[in-house]
Design brief:
Elements (H helix, E strand, L loop, with lengths): L1 E7 L3 H8 L5 E7 L7 H14 L9 E5 L17 E4 L4 H6 L2 H8 L7 E3 H4 L21 H8 L1 H11 L8 E5 L6 H14 L3 E5 L3 H8 L7 E4 L4 E4 L7 E4 L4
Parallel strand pairs: 1-2, 1-3, 3-4, 5-6, 6-7
Antiparallel strand pairs: 4-8, 9-10
Length: 248
């Protein structure tokens, strides 16, 4: 099979490792870290990339997204001639951890928990993700505007994620064994020491990335958006997103 992959470059090491072991042909393109801070801009960039796939002259079996909902950045993306496939994840933290269950266990109670990984730390500015797991910014509007767009329950979830309490006593380091790099890890430990916070290690896993690239898209962990339909947010800890046909 032949897949086009659009992904955040914080996952470049992990994706590169998986591509070399993937049974399918993958054509990857990476977007810069931090683009989710302005969701509308990242959404526009990704949609342009999806639309441009039509002119590649390749009959792709699907377009894969190495993103989660990422602060609503992927909500609204429309599949064109090829299906879109996206992990059911709120953000890249789930992709580094390898499952929704691991994300819920370690982050659902404190979405502003500081965390990092080898792949995250070496891209863009900042070695540690600090209170930005949602990727939402105030430019997306006030609370009432969000209620009008998403309904009160979903809007409240989004608002609380946009404005977390940024207090945490340690920094989680998600250790993906296949992409360990001692020199980068040492920089992370130095940064944690500078911040006066201990590092708490969590085991990372490539299983979601491997499943995405291998075409193992079970409905519990992946959303497949048929051509002509779009991604919509569900904003829970299980389904997270769904596919729907845009209104005429």
């Amino acid at each position: 099979m032949y897949f086009k992959l659009l992904a955040c470059d914080v996952l470049l090491r992990e994706i590169a490792h998986c591509i070399t072991r993937c049974p399918h042909t993958i054509s990857p393109a990476f977007m810069p870290k931090g683009e989710h801070v302005v969701p509308a801009r990242l959404r526009e960039t990704l949609q342009k990339q999806i639309d441009s796939v039509e002119s590649d002259g390749v009959a792709y079996d699907a377009v894969l997204l190495g993103y989660g909902l990422c602060g609503n950045s992927t909500a609204g993306l429309v599949a064109r001639s090829f299906p879109l496939v996206i992990p059911r994840a709120h953000d890249c933290t789930t992709l580094f951890l390898g499952s929704k269950a691991a994300f819920c266990e370690h982050f659902s109670a404190n979405p502003s928990q500081g965390w990092t990984s080898i792949g995250y730390s070496e891209r863009g500015g900042g070695l540690v993700a600090d209170g930005t797991t949602s990727g939402l910014s105030d430019s997306d509007g006030d609370f009432q505007s969000m209620v009008e767009l998403y309904g009160e329950e979903s809007a409240r979830y989004l608002w609380e994620t946009m404005h977390p309490e940024k207090h945490y006593h340690d920094i989680i380091f998600i250790d993906v064994p296949e992409t360990r790099e001692p020199h980068i890890e040492e920089r992370l430990r130095e940064e944690a020491a500078r911040l006066g916070k201990p590092i708490r290690e969590l085991p990372g896993s490539l299983r979601l990335i491997e499943g995405l690239l291998a075409g193992n898209w079970n409905s519990e962990e992946f959303l497949v958006i048929p051509p002509g339909q779009r991604v919509v947010g569900v904003y829970d800890q299980d389904e997270i997103m769904a596919a729907e046909r845009p209104a005429e």
